[in-house]
Design the sequence.
């Protein structure tokens, strides 16, 4: 199996295993061990938690975190 595909599966397994982030809608792309994350999350804390979880996947050489957070200041 292609190492990048295998790493992508491992990243998703880590995300699905951790209850703090398993319900997040995150797009994961892997190229030569570099994991790029895309998606929109509810908070900065969740964004940090996702990155922490992804670091657990064996074979990650770099994380490019392009996750954004919802701006709640406009919900008034």
Sequence:
């Amino acid at each position: 199996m292609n190492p990048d595909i295998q790493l992508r599966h491992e990243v998703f397994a880590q995300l699905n295993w951790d209850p703090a982030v398993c319900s997040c809608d995150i797009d994961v792309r892997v190229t030569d061990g570099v994991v790029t994350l895309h998606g929109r999350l509810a908070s900065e804390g969740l964004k940090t938690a996702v990155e922490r979880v992804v670091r657990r996947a064996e074979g990650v050489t770099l994380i490019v975190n392009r996750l954004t957070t919802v701006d709640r200041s406009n919900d008034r």
